[in-house]
Write a structure and sequence with these properties.
The chain has about 200 residues and is of the alpha+beta class. It folds into two domains: about 40 residues, no CATH class; about 160 residues, no CATH class. It is built from seven helices and seven strands. The strands form three sheets. Strands 6-5-7 form a three-stranded antiparallel sheet. Strands 1-2 form a two-stranded antiparallel ribbon. It has a two-stranded antiparallel sheet with strand order 3-4. Helix 2 packs antiparallel against helix 3 and helix 3 runs antiparallel to helix 4. It is elongated and about 70 Å long. It starts with 5 loop residues before the first strand and ends with a helix. The relative contact order is 0.16. It binds zinc ion. The site of zinc ion has 8 residues, from loops. Zinc ion (ZN) binds next to loops.
């Protein structure tokens, strides 16, 4: 194992060697009594199921139109990429680029990297480049902003309601599901995966 198995007390800076814990046990600092870490149940199956469901939601969200806007007898609908391409041709390129990165590329990369780590761990294999992929996942977390996009869609639906009729379509429901699934997936502590991998042969 290349990773250090050390843990530091957040309150008094004492350093300890990590030891495996039994069910519901808590490791405490012997100097100040603060909690160092606690026993966690690692549910790789649940994470992998969320991961796969999120990939399906991602495909639906990106392939299908998000909304249909009807105003003065005209109707138009578009999916995420049609909206991004339109933003480039209408002088809002920075917003289009930001949306492409935060709503498409980062979430897709995040889901692929999660799958790359979770699938082998589930069958008790340690993926190659585990350390690099885990660092990438941690750094990517703040950059996948599907929930911000979802909020934007909701605001647009409400605000445009005065001048046009906006009806959410399949893509919007796909994004809603993706938001929920990504939030659940990201609520897991990545240290659980480190723990699981460190128990496996390299
Ligand atoms: Zn302490």
């Amino acid at each position: 194992m290349a990773e250090a198995r050390l843990v530091i007390c957040k309150f008094c800076d004492c350093v300890y060697q990590r030891a495996p814990l039994g069910a519901r046990e808590i490791a405490r600092c012997s100097q100040c009594g603060a909690e160092l870490y606690h026993w966690r149940r690692i549910d790789i199956d649940a994470m992998l199921a969320l991961n796969i469901a999120a990939l399906f939601a991602f495909v639906i969200a990106n392939l299908f139109p998000i909304a249909i806007v009807q105003s003065q007898g005209r109707a138009s609908e578009s999916n995420l990429w049609q909206a991004i391409i339109a933003s480039f041709s209408e002088g809002a390129a920075p917003i289009g680029a930001l949306a492409a990165m935060t709503v498409f590329f980062f979430p897709l990369l995040q889901l692929c990297l999660f799958f790359y780590v979770l699938a082998p761990l589930r069958s008790a294999r340690r993926p190659r480049a585990f350390v690099a992929v885990m660092h990438a996942l941690r750094q990517m977390q703040p950059w996948a902003m599907v929930e911000v996009f979802m909020l934007g869609v909701l605001v647009a639906v409400v605000k445009l309601g005065d001048v046009a009729s906006v009806t959410p379509l399949t893509g919007a429901y796909g994004f809603a599901a993706l938001t929920l699934l990504l939030t659940l997936l990201n609520s897991y502590d990545l240290r659980e995966l480190w723990d699981r991998a460190s128990a496996l042969p390299a």
